[in-house]
Amino acid sequence: MNAALQQLAHVTALVGRDPLLTQGAGGNTSLKIGDRLWVKASGAWMRDAEDREIFAQASAGEFTAALRSGAPGSVEAVAQAGAASGALRPSIEAVLHAIMPQSAVIHAHAINSVVCSVLADWKDRFRAAAQRLGVRARCAPYLKPGAVLAAAIAKDNAAHGAPDVILLQNHGLLVGAPTPAAALDLLLAVERALAFPVRALSAQEGAEAPPEGFELDSDHAGVACDPELCAAITQAPLTPDQVVFVGGAPCAAPRAASVARIVQRAAAATGIAPALAYVPGLGALRRRGLTEGQRAQCVALFEVARRAPVGARIVGLTQDQASELVNWDAEKFRRAADESRV
Ligand SMILES: [Zn+2]
Fold this sequence. Notes:
By secondary structure, this protein is α+β, with helices and mostly antiparallel strands. The protein contains 15 helices and 11 strands. Bound molecules: zinc ion.
């Protein structure tokens, strides 16, 4: 294997094995050699990069041209062509990698970046961190991942030049560098510069017994017992992967006994059953039988919640932003891949 691709696989696996950098099938890496774009396949896990083939191939130029044409479905057509004859299908976010000028790009749902990206004052916090690091940085307001987000970033790149790091609101981080190793260094430096202290959250003793189909979640119990955090986290989902894999924000139920009914009602409204439910002030429950990918998302939400600064306002996705993810074919593919993963 080409040494650059080997480095890509190694860096990808390092990021994928750290739950504070990426979770489950989330996040992706890429490398451009000439026009050829090697990019993580949709539904693949970054941590598997050194154990099996997880990279799909596509033409970076075709992605860019499709995006520029603005024709509906043209970006998806390039991704589909990449997946022709049974090959891997490029990630939903492949086009975002294609339009960045750097050879190596990492997109990660890194926890400190995600925390920053969900705070009302995210831009000020991120700019201050980038300034301390001395990197070219930009903030990208939330847009649906994929072609819509990539088009906005391509437009900003054309107008202002491409930065080294972009914080994607309610989503994560995008970094570009000449090599995968340099991109990883940059990602880690941004995470260190943002580094939100971890709060000690304590749950009440003697939570109510979980109803059938649910089990206690001792991590989230601490969040459910902090009135300010509980209100913010049950208010709205924070990121697209939270919507796609765990059915959005945890439900709030007055008692453990009413959780099943409340989860069912939420599932009827959105088409996905929430994996988590909080009983404010008492504890938290999660559905039994979650996939490894869903568990990883639950842990990520906990890691984000316990780093939210006291008193800082958390801003989640709107109802419309969440609904457009649930019924999106590309996301249904990722969800199906998670359910069939062995
Ligand atoms: Zn993402």
